[in-house]
Design goal:
The protein is an alpha+beta fold. It is built from 19 helices and 22 strands. α11 packs antiparallel against α12.
Length: 620
């Protein structure tokens, strides 16, 4: 009935979709296995993509040839560039999306991708021989052969949903949990754990009074995620902001004695940076109010997502508390919020390729690795799909350095440091964030994506042209000089000091109050040249000029560290031979099996002296 597949992907969420697309586009014959064909690419939680650091990840996925950026652009209803008041390292694109259209676009793109087959059924086990995966077993007892398998099970592994004192099995509302895989993996020697996440109630927009809320419109000139020819929005839908208050908090507190979290029925740790509303008012009792973001679910639906009100309290308490929020006085609730517990596998059991250390050709991606967020899952899926294809074709795995991509930071953190709570990406996790900006993801990664076999020739040529034009514009500004008569009127308007003699234009562009766009208002000879460049190219050139010393400093730091990254350690190296290593370091190294000295240096419990000792030993 089934041929032998090159790559079998279990789970069709954000990680599974990217894994299937990547492996198929590289030439592998792929089977995507899901329990429900109607929920491929579903946004299980909020209907949005991107945000702080997450937006950078979506742009990196797109630059490499993944689909998330394109799907987001085709289904967005609002676009905002966050943190514009800060430096460019912090700028983060975010889209509000049409939930139904997002899932529809994912399915259409996968169906139009050659080499992707689909199968709707639960995978209950793996076929393993001599510590190598050879396929999967389904709930109908069907064995499907595969050269490699990627597990992207999300919150479905032994998932349990909690609402007040009620709990029942489920991987998502109205969908059953997945069983069998955790138990087999534990038998094979894997360590597992439990995590928790939650989601807020959904409500009827017709029952809300938006006059009591603050409007949050999209950007005046909306951008987009993809570097391809997707269209920017011509019209947008607004989101809204309101706040909890003392009355809301007191109502919620009435349900604390029935809270599955406070009463110990939930064992798994939840996301630190996205706590439930009951957790927020308990931990931050001194705060009089908390923000609530009212987010439309799409163009043509009345359903609204109540962001900031994630909860697992009894549904009656949820409803009563909602009615105390300004604008929600007559709210109609579609469904209550809930918490969900699920199995995960500490990611220190993985190689940096996301292949498991215990079972060859078996890869993990997404929430199974302890992460939270669509974007974090999607980039892991992309890398797992790439490396599953490479492994079976005896090609070296693709692993990004921390200085190359946020994707590299995320995977490096997971594999070396592990996580006991849902891991979320922040710009603060990246020590090279001035290099890893959202605006230059294509210039950093498209060439690599093309070499991998994902980014098209057309994409590569577009990046080459962009680089050439940006360099040319920087060169023009570097060579140009301007007189006081040409620029002083503009400098005065911008609140920047006047000049008394001719100066290099470069010096003015480096000022915080003056930008390349201001040249168009001057009588400078170079202003006519600016019409040859796109807004994106002008922005790129300006960032390079203004932040040159910071970019250069980070580049030098990255090059210094790179020597350690290139110092390989054999996978079968016997750490017990190196008696000078601390006992803790020896224990951690035998468990994690770092691939390089650089990776070793980032493992918790390994000291700088341990790094020096092993470097000297290996050097000999």
């Amino acid at each position: 009935m089934f041929p032998e597949y090159d790559v079998i992907v279990i789970g069709a969420g954000h990680a599974g979709c990217e894994a299937a697309a990547a492996a198929a586009n590289m030439g592998s014959k792929v089977l995507l296995v899901t329990m429900n064909m109607q929920t491929i690419g579903q946004m299980s939680c909020n209907p949005a993509m991107g945000g702080v650091a997450k937006g950078q990840i979506v742009r990196e996925i797109d630059a490499l040839g993944g689909y998330s950026g394109i799907v987001s652009d085709r289904s967005m209803i609002q676009f905002r560039m966050l943190n514009r008041s800060k430096g460019p390292a912090m700028w983060s694109p975010r889209t509000q999306n049409d939930r139904a259209r997002f899932a529809e676009e994912w399915r259409l793109m996968l169906e139009q991708t050659p080499n992707v087959d689909f199968w709707q059924e639960m995978a209950v086990g793996l076929l393993v021989k001599d510590k190598r995966v050879t396929g999967i077993k389904t709930s109908l007892g069907i064995d499907i052969k595969g050269k490699s398998v990627v597990l992207t099970n999300g919150t479905f592994l032994n998932g349990k949903i909690h609402i007040g004192e009620k709990n029942f099995g489920g991987g998502r509302t109205a969908e059953k949990a997945a069983t069998g895989l955790t138990e087999q993996l534990v038998e094979l020697g894997f360590e597992s754990g439990r995590m928790k996440t939650g989601t807020p109630p959904r409500v009827d927009s017709r029952s809300l009074n938006f006059n009591h809320m603050d409007e949050q419109p999209g950007d005046e000139n909306p951008g987009k995620f993809s570097y391809s020819n997707t269209k920017a929005l011509e019209k947008q839908v607004s989101c809204w902001i309101t706040y909890t208050n003392e009355s809301v908090h007191k109502t919620l507190e009435k349900g604390f004695d029935k809270s599955p979290m406070f009463q110990g029925r939930i064992k798994g740790l939840g996301p630190r940076y996205c706590p439930s509303i009951e957790d927020k008012i308990n931990r931050f009792a001194e705060r009089e109010r908390h923000q609530i973001f009212v987010e439309p679910e799409g163009w043509n639906t009345i359903e609204v997502y109540v962001n900031g009100f994630s909860t697992s309290l009894p549904e009656s308490i949820q409803y009563e508390a909602l009615t105390k929020i300004p604008g929600f006085e007559k709210v109609k609730m579609f469904r209550p919020g809930y918490a969900i517990e699920y199995d995960y596998f500490p990611p220190t059991q993985l190689k940096t390729s996301l292949e498991t250390q215990l079972i060859e050709n078996l890869f993990f991606a997404g929430q199974i690795n302890g992460t939270t967020g669509y974007e974090e899952a999607a980039c892991q899926g992309l890398m797992a799909g790439i490396n599953a294809h490479n492994k079976i074709n005896e090609i070296e795995p693709v692993v990004f350095k921390r200085s190359e991509a946020y994707i590299g930071v995320l995977i490096d953190d997971l594999v070396n440091k592990g996580t006991i709570e849902p891991y979320r990406m922040f710009t603060s996790r990246a020590e090279y964030r001035i290099l890893l900006r959202q605006d230059n993801a294509d210039m950093r990664l498209t060439e690599k994506g093309h070499a991998i076999g994902l980014a098209s020739e057309e994409r590569l040529e577009a990046v080459k042209e962009k680089k050439s034009k940006v360099n040319k514009l920087v060169g023009l500004i570097t060579e140009a000089r301007v007189s006081p008569e040409e620029v002083n009127s503009i400098l005065e308007v911008n609140g920047s000091p006047r000049i008394e003699e001719k100066v290099p234009l470069l010096n003015l562009v480096k000022r915080p109050q003056f930008g390349i766009k201001d040249i168009e208002k001057t009588s400078s000879a170079i202003r006519n040249e600016l019409g040859k460049y796109s807004a994106e190219e002008i922005e790129q050139a300006e960032i390079i000029i203004k932040y040159e010393p910071y970019i250069e400093r980070e580049q030098k730091m990255a090059e210094k560290i790179e020597s350690l990254e290139n110092f390989k350690i054999r996978n079968d190296f016997d750490y017990d031979k190196v008696k000078a290593l601390s006992s803790e370091a020896r224990e951690k190294l035998k468990k994690t099996r770092p691939e390089t000295i650089g990776q070793m240096s980032r493992i918790s419990g390994v000291s700088p002296s341990d790094v020096s000792i092993l470097s000297v030993y290996l050097g000999r």
